[in-house]
Each structure stands twice: as C-alpha cells, then as structure tokens.
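Priority: medium. Attachment 1 of 2:
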C-alpha cells in the first residue's frame, strides 16, 4: 500500500523572534511541524495556530511575530 503525506516544518523568519529559542511545538530550536494529506491542509492547520505564511516570498512568522508593534501616539 502506498500512502501519501505532506510534512510542513516552520521556523519563524523574524531574526529577533523569542520563540525560536524555546519551541513552537517541539523541543528547543525545533520547527513547528504539521503533517497532513496535502499542503493546503497543513497550511490551514498552521494558520489556525497563528502562523502567517507567505507563498510569494517563502516566509513564515509565528503568532507572536506576525503583528508589527503598534506605535503609540
């Protein structure tokens, strides 16, 4: 039997991300990993966890880094 599977490993592309030092889903410095039947399913799961993923430039930002800091007036 042949079974197909898609695995998506995500690291936050923000160089100053504090969550890269601890973990998103695994141990220290391990990627957030999503497994499913296809790319669309894995992207949906990751975005549900707060990830911002861009296919255009190939970047990913975790939930803590996807929002730029608000400027106070």
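Attachment 2 of 2:
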């Amino acid at each position: 039997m042949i079974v197909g599977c898609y695995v998506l490993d995500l690291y936050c592309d923000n160089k100053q991300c504090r969550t890269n030092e601890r973990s998103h889903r695994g141990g220290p410095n391990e990627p957030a990993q999503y497994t499913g039947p296809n790319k669309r399913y894995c992207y949906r799961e990751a975005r549900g966890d707060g990830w911002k993923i861009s296919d255009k430039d190939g970047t990913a930002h975790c939930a803590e880094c996807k929002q730029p800091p608000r400027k106070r007036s």
